[in-house]
Amino acid sequence: MNDKSDSDLRKEAEGWLSSNFPRFFELYQWSNKADPRNYFNFKELFPIAYLGAQSYAQLESYLTKLDSLAWEKLRSKALPFVSADDPSRRYQQLFSTLDEARGYVFLADQGYEDIEFVEPQKRKKGSPPSPDLSAMKAGSTAILEVKTINESDACLAPDAPWRHGTITVSPNLSDEFKSKLLSTIGQARNQLDSYPQPSDRKIVLLVVRFDHGQKTSGHLYVELERFLASQVVNAGVEVYHQATL
User: Where are the domains of the chain?
Assistant: First the structure.
């Protein structure tokens, strides 16, 4: 019998989160804890976090590499989504926003030093939003847009096979998935091309979350890399990708 009170469980969960994922914990501290839709509802988070600790650790490793100002900007951008619980996709918008940290680290690894999250611009109706990041180093200015490709609707459906213990592995990437990739790259390119500030590099970073059951299928990762490399319609835009855990 579990004699721990809700208060004890919350304190235990907060201590665990603070010790293992300090930037997730800071995001929680800044959020509206009283909102019942808050993602960091520890009765739900505690088992999810333990089961998905490897994925949490991967994203936390990117978040911790942001300097204090960059983290402050990304944290502010992510805060509204902490309590944005979509009926079917739940908190994907929160994690898609936090994925922008991957773009920051990508630029840092490319030798850029002056890296900033771009402030949203006032824009006319129908015009593309600004890219996520801009960066400078000697002889180069880059702009970068991070796009997350999330799980399919079929994967998230209540009757999805994986929810009942049935795991299927696709022999190849579906045409629907490839079409989604190209459409997403096209959207990102429009954002990069519409940005008024000059740059010599325009970069799209795709963050890919495969459907459940496909994450361990190595041949799909290889096919994804080959498919993106085969696209010649994106001349002038560099396309990179990261597949999540």
Answer: 1-80, 99-245
